[in-house]
Design a protein that fits this description.
Elements: E1 2-4, E2 13-17, H1 19-31, E3 35-39, E4 44-47, E5 50-51, E6 56-60, E7 65-68, H2 80-83, E8 109-112, E9 118-120, E10 124-126, E11 133-136, E12 141-143, E13 152-155, E14 158-163, E15 166-168, E16 175-178, E17 181-186, E18 189-191, E19 202-205, E20 208-213, E21 216-219, E22 224-228, E23 238-244, E24 247-250, E25 253-261, E26 265-271, E27 274-278, E28 280-286, E29 292-304, E30 318-322, E31 334-346, E32 350-353, E33 360-372, E34 382-384, E35 393-395, E36 401-404, E37 406-418, E38 430-432, E39 438-439
Parallel strand pairs: 1-3, 2-4, 3-6, 4-7, 5-8, 6-9, 7-10, 8-13, 9-14, 10-15, 13-16, 14-17, 15-18, 16-19, 17-20, 18-21, 19-22, 20-23, 21-24, 22-25, 23-26, 24-27, 25-28, 26-29, 27-29, 28-30, 29-31, 30-32, 31-33, 32-36, 33-37, 36-38, 37-39
Antiparallel strand pairs: 11-12, 34-35
Length: 440
């Protein structure tokens, strides 16, 4: 059964809150065992919080806009406990302290314990980011409070599909998937303000069997980021993930694992992606006790550039590191990583580092081309370790490819070209730390 919300009395004028009508249509589909709720093209539907149900498809037709309300009172709290004492305020900038346990207080589009939810259509979901503006800096817009409201929050859902829609102007994590399984995200376009802090594109958090394919994402901080957050630890590891055929541009990392990493990550394929105009290409920021294993990065083109230090990273096309977030909680191990057929250009080198007491084990780097060239006015400053218990930065010359504290390292066909303007910033083209065991 399909319900067209204009036929049910929605205004579609972009001024009247149509959340009640949209929810009414969703609930009717739910009572009938499933169906489709259609937002007809040619209209803008202003809405506060809506809750999707099992076997319900929210179809946003081409020319339709589902616009998030600009009134924070229109967003429901996940529980009354979350509502008590909630202050929409921010004490320090989020790039200084943005520790987040993974549990938002409010939501826009939400589902929990549902099966067969689908968001589809060639229309647009607009997050009304301006309502979240805090301090506006030269290179960053900080949020007015933290954590803010995710646009799409799916918790413990199975057989979840998001396809073809355009999602824009998120004020926080755009698509936060918590403990979900059998997820297919394909052909979507996420267009966030790359000045707006913390507006990640897609965040699979403790998720399993996830396919993200043929998407275009522009975001700040990160485009696609796998997480295992503290508040959602009960959902276990993050595993069996494929990210393929995507075009990605980010003010921080295009694809990231971490920093929230209390459980393990395993069996991950990153393949055939084009990354451009990005501070970090692919980044493993293991900062908590979880581990990373069995990762393949292949057939990617990565172009990086430096941004201001409001954003983490130093233009590394690939950055893989295990660093303690807190001195009393040792970060985990990284093992079995294959990097194959990658072309990189930009202001930073490939940085891979385990710890002396927990080296990266079984690392293969094969057929990699890296060109170091200056393409911004920002300084080449070294390496960025944030967030961490020790010093935030290493200030000094960089390397084209730097591998430290690793065992069973295999390299083949690595070529580094250093353009003339970059030579003053580069120590060595390739540096494999002497304590690593290398076979070539």
């Amino acid at each position: 059964m399909a319900y067209h919300i204009m036929d049910m009395g929605a205004s579609g004028d972009g001024k009247t809150n149509d959340a009640y009508i949209i929810q009414q249509a969703i609930d009717k589909c739910d009572l009938e065992g499933g169906g489709t709720v259609v937002l007809d093209g040619g209209h803008t539907y202003l809405s506060g919080s809506i809750v999707l149900k099992s076997n319900v498809e929210l179809m946003i037709e081409k020319g339709a806009v589902l616009k998030a309300s600009e009134n924070l009172n229109d967003y429901n709290y996940i529980s009354e406990i979350e509502k008590i004492g909630h202050n929409h305020g921010l004490e320090v900038p989020t790039f200084v302290n943005c520790e987040y346990n993974g549990k938002p207080r409010q939501y826009f589009i939400y589902a929990k314990d549902a099966d067969g939810v689908c968001i589809s259509g060639r229309g647009t979901i607009d997050g009304s980011e301006e309502i979240y503006y805090g301090e506006i800096r030269k290179d960053q817009i900080d949020g007015a409070f933290y954590p803010r409201i995710p646009m799409i929050l799916m918790e413990h859902c199975t057989h979840l599909t998001i396809k073809e829609v355009t999602i824009r102007k998120s004020g926080f994590w755009t698509t936060h998937l918590v403990g979900c399984e059998e997820v297919d995200i394909t052909g979507i376009c996420i267009l966030n303000n790359r000045m707006m802090a913390n507006c990640d594109g897609i965040d699979p958090d403790h998720c399993k069997h996830v396919r993200i394919s043929n998407c275009h994402i522009e975001a700040a901080d990160d485009c696609v980021v796998l997480k295992t957050t503290e508040a959602n630890k009960k959902y276990g590891d993050c595993e069996d993930i494929i990210i393929s055929g995507c075009t990605l541009a980010s003010t921080s990392a295009a694809i990231k694992i971490g920093t929230e990493s209390v459980n393990d990550f395993r069996n991950i394929i990153i393949r055939g992606c084009t990354i451009y105009d990005t501070n970090r290409g692919i980044s493993f920021q293991l900062r908590d006790e979880g581990n990373i294993e069995n990762v393949i990065i292949s057939d990617c083109i990565i172009n990086t550039r430096n941004f201001s230090e409001c954003w983490w990273g130093c233009a590394e096309p690939i950055n893989i590191a295990s660093i303690n977030r807190k001195n009393n909680v040792p970060s985990g191990n990284i093992r079995c990583v294959l990097i194959n057929n990658v072309i990189c250009t930009g202001e930073g080198g490939i940085y891979i580092a385990g710890k002396e007491n927990a080296p990266i084990y079984d690392l293969t780097i094969n057929n990699v081309r890296l060109t170091l060239e200056k393409n911004t006015d920002y300084p080449i400053s070294g390496y960025d370790f944030r967030p961490c218990a020790g010093p935030d930065f290493y200030r000094g010359k960089i390397n084209g490819v730097y591998v430290k504290n690793s065992e069973k390292v295999t390299t083949n066909n690595i070529y580094v070209t250093v353009k003339e303007e970059m030579k003053q910033y580069v120590d060595k083209d390739i540096c494999i730390d002497e304590i690593s065991r290398l076979s070539e």
